[in-house]
Design a protein that fits this description.
Pfam families: Polysacc_deac_1 (PF01522). This is Polysaccharide deacetylase family protein. It is an enzyme of class 3 (hydrolase). By secondary structure, this protein is of the alpha/beta class. The protein has 2 domains: about 230 residues, TIM Barrel (Alpha-Beta Barrel), CATH 3.20.20; about 90 residues, Immunoglobulins (Immunoglobulin-like). It is about 30% helix and about 25% strand. Strands 1, 4, 5, 6, 7, 10 and 11 form a 7-stranded mixed sheet that branches. Strands 12, 14, 16, 17, 20 and 21 form a 6-stranded mixed sheet that branches.
Amino acid sequence: MTFKKFFHSVLSVLFCLSLPAQSAVILQYHHVSETLPAVTSVSADTFTEHLTYLQEHDFKVLPLNELLTRLQQGESLPDKTVAITFDDGYKNNYEQAAPILERFNYPYTIFVNPKLIDEGKGYVMSWPQLRELAKKGALIANHSAQHDYLHRKLAEETTEQWQARIKQDILSSQQRIKEEIGHDYKYLAYPYGEFNNQLQDLVTELGFIGIGQHSGAIHTDSDFSRLPRFPASGFYSTLDTLITKMNARAFPIKKLIYTDSVTTEDLPQISIQFNMGDFHKSQLACYVSSVGQAKLTWTSKDTVQVQTPKALGKGRSRFNCTAPSIKHAGSYYWFSQPWVIVK
């Protein structure tokens, strides 16, 4: 290689490395408690450890509305951008999480179930408590009326009846949040992280962004009816593994093909067409929860078919695909496909 070619090659690499990020990560929490179910909880000490890592490693913690608006508008974000979210609005968010977040001056979002608040359930925050947090900068958003499985039809319920019922659930919950808090952010965190094609279509039709619980980073070309978040509680709260997720990048995906996230097929598969360039095909690895390594078949230079080698059991499962970035040392691309296997 001549010196001129070498010089231009170095300039090209430096330019790519200096570009603002197109990816961001949303973290998902439930309880900050040492007495509630460990699977959905982190202790106050562990939660503080997470925030300390973000602070000491120069992460930009943005309010969820700013992050999503900028991505939808195609704007670049600072590298290492993160948003913090909580599901269900538990009282320990007010008692334990909020004071810690306030010390770090970090914004956050709480997804609540308005019907449960109106019924005075003792384990969730009250409207006055939520208003207090909102005045300090917390965003309050929609998690459905009472945490039902929104994609499920009732016995003998038609598709039209289901659509009307779920539309009423989402919009009435949104109205209650607007009445009590003043917020009208059209974000819906799917209860249990479960959604199917029909629910995604309905959420989009209502003008909402749909947010799941499957792992992965987000970027400008993400499907805003099924945005991923990294769970950071319970088994997933260990900082050693969470660091990799905090630094994750969104795969540049041209096309994603699958039948439905909620399916009777116990051997589901997906086809992913990538914008190639920043990872090696040989380093793409996909895993099936509770099964092991997935079968990968490259059907073209940029398209891979991902299959489970073993039938999935009833309930929730995932395909998790990762590959190390070529340009960003220590950073991994991450994509997750959630499944709900039903009879």
